[in-house]
Amino acid sequence: MKDKKKNKRVKFGFTMVELMAMLIIIGLLATLVVTKVASKIDQARLLTTKANLKMLHSAVSQFRMDTGRFPNEDVGLLELVEMPPDVTNWPEGGYLETTDIPPDGWGNPFIYEAYPESGKQFAIRSAGPDGEEGTEDDMLSTDAS
Question: Domains in the chain, start-ordered, CATH in brackets?
Answer without folding.
Answer: 16-144 (3.30.700.10)
